[in-house]
Amino acid sequence: MKWCGVMHPGPSLALAIIACFLQRYFCESRRDKEEGLKPGSETYGYKAFSGEAFVMQCTKPQSAGLCERLYNITASSEEADWSRAEGETNRDRDDGAVTGRGNALWFSTVTAKDSGKYTCHTGGMVIHFYVEVMERASLGSRDTEENRVTLVLGKGGRIPCPGIKCQTQRSKVTWYKDARPVCEIQDERTISVVDRCTLLLGTVYVSDATLYFCDYTYEENGIPWTVRRSVNVSVIPADTKDPPQMTYPHGNEEGVELGEPHNLSCQVQFGFQRTFDPVVQWWISSHSNHEDMMKLMEMEAQQVRERSIEEFEFTVTRTAQILEVTQLHLDSTFTCLAQNSVGNSSATIRLTRKSAVSRVLVIVCPVMSLLFVAGLGITVHVYWLEISILYRIYLPYKQTTTDDKEYDAFVSYVPSSSSEEAGRRGRGGREEALEVLLPRVLEGQWGYRLFLLERDLLPGGAYAEDVVCAIRSSRRLVCVLSPDYLASTCLFELETGIRALQQDPHLRLILIWTSPSTSSPNPSPSPNPSPSPSTTSPTRSRPLSLPLSHTLGLVAPASPLPSLVRRAIRVLPALHWTPQNQRRMITSSNSGSRFWRSLHKAMPAQSGTGTDTWTLLDRHTDTQDRGTVL
Length: 630
Fold this sequence. Notes:
Layout: H1 11-34, E1 41-49, E2 54-57, E3 81-84, E4 98-101, E5 104-107, E6 116-122, E7 125-134, H2 141-146, E8 148-152, E9 157-160, E10 174-177, E11 180-181, H3 182-185, E12 191-194, E13 198-201, E14 211-220, E15 223-236, E16 245-248, E17 253-256, E18 262-271, E19 279-286, E20 294-296, E21 303-306, E22 313-322, H4 327-330, E23 332-339, E24 344-353, H5 356-382, H6 384-394, E25 407-412, H7 419-427, H8 434-445, E26 450-452, H9 453-456, H10 463-472, E27 474-481, H11 483-486, H12 491-503, E28 508-514, E29 548-551, E30 554-557, H13 563-571, E31 574-577, H14 594-602
Parallel strand pairs: 1-7, 1-15, 8-15, 17-24, 25-26, 25-27, 27-28, 28-31
Antiparallel strand pairs: 2-5, 3-6, 4-5, 6-7, 9-13, 10-11, 10-14, 12-13, 14-15, 16-18, 18-22, 19-20, 19-23, 21-22, 23-24, 29-30
Helix pairs in contact: 6-13, 10-12
């Protein structure tokens, strides 16, 4: 460049000056290229300290006095493209300590390896950052302690900026709580910066246990540098002023069994202490030798459970094991002793032998419960028929006149050759047979539509099928029971009705017991007592004449009844007919006998008469009208 300073007259001087300016321009352009600078780019510097958290955002550092956030956490990571000067990405560390947060680069723990030059591209702008990480070993122990601050909950607290002497600090320190500047929080609570570099908290809250940053700036070689320090703040409650409290054992005795192992457990609640050193011990005192010497027992390690910071308490559990309980243990006293720096507390218990009854109860009670459940199941299974019939009696379905039934009642009785003669005697003012009287009253006076087997059963059909069909088409099955009935083929109609009752909720059975005097006067046996159920004739033969027995006012045949019929008539309510009831009919001026009133209530509702009341008279007042076949 010596020739640039030689003076030449005329045109030579002008050319020399132009050449000198061109050379200087190219030299400066080359230097800028080597340093990676471009038009529109800016350069800043950061100083961090090894082992601390560090963050820098993709924008120029904030000036002192401005109340702006440390970085924009809501920004997309695509808005900031970070790279190292040597072309490596910002996530070149294998430990995952470098991540992107919004438009910032976040170092959870910065190290000397992170020193270097970083480049950030955002919005067409290029920003260069020089990061210098200083080793903490060169800072001394004082700075190490200031990087972590412990505050007491509910009291005031001070957080100094590490490594800064506030008295000699010229520039004001800017504080951040996480990403929020302190100046933004001052409107919400009492918090301020005193002595230029110390953060003062009027009242410490649980939320103050977080990460704080403090910044101060200076300029060196034309580059603005920002020293950024982080402070980890933890919050603890004040030391307790109370001694430990026993939460278990509560009582004075514990039941044990001789020869068996037993564990003594003691739970104690301790308040918070900064130097927490709880003591929980089990002691045994034997009274057999009259010395009352206390000995420390062998115990397991203490188990400590910590609660939340608002109610910062510790629950310590200590267990002592007795390998085999002997009589000596029963004669001893066991004491749990708990102690902290404030005071101590204790709980004393004695071991007592468990009563033998308790073991018996433990074994017998489950067995008895199992037997009870099994017995209940067997009983329900055996008496399921009776239970289902009782359910239909006492919890009936609501009856209507539009249930698609063709007949109001199916009347089942034993037809006898004396029925016509009894009818003629009745018209002459004498006694009438009930099978003759029932159709006349139910159809003629009360207006019900009945199905009478000898009148309405069509000839040529199958007897069993026609009976089943007729019963299912009726709302009621009225059975006139007598010894002759129970020994005749009419028993099939009753058995069919009982089976239909279990399936059809709209069907009801009305049983009417007649006294022996109303049965057939001719008890002579017939050589052909009953036709086959498959006969096509609607006329049934006379019943067999069998010996009768009376039990509880009812009569039963000597031959055994089918199990279904015998079990059903035990629980089904029934009416009792006597010849005296014939003269006490229901009229406009006479309410009639109990038999006719009960029969009228048991019959289905007719159109316009309201809801059916399938309820006989009170069970207590009608016991003489009910019967049981044994």
